Amino acid sequence: MTIAEDVLASARDRMHKSVDSTRHEFTSLRTGRANPALLDRVVVNYYGTPTPLKQLAQIGAPEPRMLTVTPFDKSSMKDIEKAISDAELGFNPSNDGNMIRLPVPELTEDRRKDMVKLARKMAEEGRIAVRNVRRDSITDLKNGDATEDDVRRGETDIQKVTDEHIALIDEALKGKEAEIMEV
Predict the structure, then answer these.
(1) Among 153, 158, 171, which residue's Cα sits nearest to residue 130?
(2) Same domain? 24 vs 50
(3) pTM here?
């Protein structure tokens, strides 16, 4: 395997990870449907330690417009409820002593537009990550002991891979926008 092939394989792998990361970020966006991933960013102050909610409770979506949070430790119920309220996700938690129910309200048109803007921002961050991989890969290629022809060919191949991965991000963004704007 030549240096150019190594650099290209590494670039392809890192770009793929950037696309996967962007897709995962999209799952945390609220679309009007209950999805446990909506609570991925919630961090609970558990005995003085910031702890992700999913480590403290089981999160479920028994209905299309309802999330349930069942803490493993019932004494953390108030802390979890406070963390969900403080996360400003638009949920109004109700506690029945055993679990916290989170009705997922309908999104307003303005809120949907805000969500689309946020999705576009996430997609742009993904594109930037892919372009950074391209830049690093081209630098690695030039700093290696490849010939000028190999460098030029490698740059062309890296650009093709970059374009493919940016297209994947754009495709995921298009799907997420459609999902958000769906009433």
Answers:
(1) 158
(2) no
(3) 0.73
